[in-house]
Amino acid sequence: MNWLFSNFDMVVELTLNHVRLSIIPIIAGFVIAVPLGRLAATGRAARGVIITSTSLLYTIPSLPLFVILPAIIGTKVLSDTNLIVALSIYAVAIMVRAAADAFSSVSVDVKQASLAMGYSKWQQFWRVEFPLAGPVLLAGMRVVSVSTIALVSVGVLIGSENLGYLFFNGKQRGLLEEVVTGIVASLLIALVFDLVLVLLGRILLPWSRKDRTRRSADSETVSLTVTTGGAA
Amino acid sequence: MNLFVNAFLWIFDPANWTPGSQSPLPIQDRLGEHLLYTFIAVLIAAAIALPLGFYIGHTGKGRQFVISFTGAMRALPTIGVLVFLTMVLGYSLVGTTANFLGTMIALVLLAIPSILAGAYSGLESVDRQTIDASRASGMTEMQILTRVEIPLSLPLIIGGLRAGVLQVIATVTIASYVGLGGLGRIISSGIGLNDYDEILGGAILVTILALLVDGVFALIQRLTATPGVGGAVETGRTRLRRRASGPLATVGTPIHEGNGP
C-alpha cells in the first residue's frame, strides 16, 4: 500500500477527472436516447432505422473512433471534448435500444385508457409512458454507466488524464500496485454510480419495488439484449 | 473531408502493402495478425462459454451467477486487465511470451460473457411447450438440447458470438500498445510519428474490419433462423407479444417453472 499512500493526491485527482469524463456522456446518452427510443417504439420501420444506425456506431472500436472523430467534428484529438463526444455516442447507442424496449413494454391498453381519459399525447408521454418505461430505462442506464466508466480509461491512449494513466505508468515502472489501484478505483466508481442509479430508481420509481419479479425480468432482458456490440 | 481523402490515399498506397516494409507495415501482415488473435481468442472463449451457456440455459441453474458475472466483467477496464495480466505473467515468463499470453487471456475473458449470455438466453427463448412436446415424444435431454433447443436458438447463440468477436476486435486494437501486432500498431505508430494520415488510415482499417465482420455475422444470423419460428431474432414487437402471452404458457412448464418468457 506504500505506493498508494505516497501518491494518494494523484490518484484522487485522476479519479475525479475520471468521474467528470464519465458523467457527461452518461447524462447525454440518456437525454438523447430517450426521444430516439420513443420514436423507435412507434413502428417497425422507425425501429429498424434507428436501432440499426446506432448499433453500427457501436460497432466502431473505441480507439479508432477517438481518432476519427476529430476529422469529422473538428475537435483536437487530445481534447477532452473529443473523448466526451465519442463516449456519448456509445452511451446513446446502448441506451437507444434499451429505451426502445422500455417504451415498447408499456401496455397498449394502458396507453389507450389514458387517451380515453382525455390525456393529450404530451401528457400521455410524461405521465404514463415515461414513468411506466422507468424500470427498463433504469436498467439501460446501469449498463451505460458501467460501460462508460470502463471505456474512459481507453482515452489515456489519446492523452486524456484519467485512471487509465495508472495502467501505463504502472506498466512502464513495473509497479503492479499502481495498475491494481487503477482497476480498483475504476471498479469503485462504477459501483458508486450503480448505487446512485439504483437509489434514484427507488426514489423516482417507488411503485416498481412492489412489483419486484417483473422488474428483475425486465432488467435482465435489457442487460442481455444490450450485449450485442463491441466498443471496448 | 480532405483528411479522409489523405487517409484513404495512405491505405491504398502500394508502398504500404510492400512485403518486408518497416515495423507497422505492410498492412496485410497487421491485418492477418489482427484476425488471427481474434480467431484464437474467440475459439477458446467459445469452447468454454458455449457448453456452460447450454448447461445453464437447459437446466436453468446458475443464471443469477451469469447475470452478475456479466455485469462485473463489463465494469472492468479492458486495458487495466490487459496490463495487469501481462505484468503478472511477466514475473515468471519472458517478456514477449508474457505479453502474448496475458493479452490472450484478457481477450478470452472479455469474450466469454457475451458468448455465455447469447447461449443461455438463446436456449431460454425457446418456447417451453416445444421443449415439453419433445420430452413427451421420448427425446432424451441430450437430444432435446442438440436437436431442438440449439437449432431453434442458433440466431441468438450466433448473436452472442458476434458481440464477443466485435469486442475482441476492438480490444486487439488496444492490445497493440503492449507490444502485440495487429492494426492498432498502425495507429500507435502514427501517433508516435504525429502522422495523421497513418493514424486515420489505421483507424479506418479497423472500423472497416469491424463493420465487415459484423455484417458477415448478421448474415449468418439471418440464414440460421429457423423458417416459421421467427422468434429468435426478436424485435420489440414479438417480445411484447410473447410477454403478453406469458401467463398462458405456465400451464405446461414443469421444469422451468418461474423462468418467465
Automatic annotation (TrEMBL), chain A:
Where does this chain mainly localize? membrane
Q: Which family does it belong to?
A: Belongs to the binding-protein-dependent transport system permease family.
Give all residue intervals belonging to the ABC transmembrane type-1 domain: 15-201
Q: Which residues cross the membrane?
A: 20-41, 48-73, 85-110, 130-159, 179-205
Stored PANTHER family: GLYCINE BETAINE/L-PROLINE TRANSPORT SYSTEM PERMEASE PROTEIN PROW, OSMOPROTECTANT IMPORT PERMEASE PROTEIN OSMW
Annotated Gene Ontology cellular components are: plasma membrane
Q: Lineage, please? A: Bacteria, Bacillati, Actinomycetota, Actinomycetes, Micrococcales
Q: Please cite one Gene Ontology biological process associated with this protein.
A: transmembrane transport
Q: Which InterPro entries match?
A: ABC_transp_perm/SBD (IPR051204), MetI-like (IPR000515), MetI-like_sf (IPR035906)
What is its membrane topology?
Answer: Multi-pass membrane protein
Give the source's domain of life in one word: Bacteria
Output the CDD domains linked to this UniProt entry.
Answer: TM_PBP2
Q: What is this protein called?
A: ABC transporter permease subunit
Write down a Pfam family by its short name: BPD_transp_1
Q: Which UniProt keywords apply?
A: Membrane, Transmembrane, Transmembrane helix, Transport
Which compartments does it reside in? Answer: Cell membrane; Membrane
